[in-house]
Amino acid sequence: MAHYAFLDENNIVTQVIVGRNENEVVQGISDWETHYANFRGQPCIRTSYNNNIRKQFAQPGFYYDSIRDEFVSLKPYDSWILDANNDWKAPVDKPAIETGEYRWDEATLSWILFYNL
Q1: Which of 14, 25, 57, 95 is deepest in the core (most CB within 10 A)?
Q2: Residues 31, 42: contact at Cβ < 8 Å?
């Protein structure tokens, strides 16, 4: 079983479906991305739960970067920017601490200690 993401005209994922495996041939059909795209009239790109293709499993709202052939997750906060690896990064580095957990506070643009072990 494989998963496929449908894209709108801006390369935003609109839906993810379960479909045929890439190596399955059914009634002469072997290119499932093309088949699903033609059937739906919408671009279709394979995605993977194991994150072994296209960086991460697509979800509705994700962006498909066709140049890098990978899915980019939703922007978690307005202040965050994409780094060179297409990962969202806070404008301030997260403190390194092994005895607690920090959470981002968008109002103050800073990391707040959420809990301390």
Answers
A1: 57
A2: no
Residues 16 and 58 in one domain: yes
Q: How far from the centroid of its chain's Cα atoms is residue 25's Cα?
A: 28
Average of pLDDT values for 91-109? 90
- The verdict on 17 and 68 lying in the same domain is yes
Domain co-membership, 55 together with 5: yes
Average pLDDT estimate for 51-64:
94
Give the pLDDT of residue 117: 65
Residue 112 and residue 96 share a domain? yes
Of 33-47, 49-63, 74-88, 91-105, least confident by mean pLDDT is: 91-105
What is the value of pTM for the model shown?
0.83
The domain total for the chain is: 2
Q: How far is CA 40 from CA 21, 32, 69, 83, in A?
A: 18, 12, 21, 33
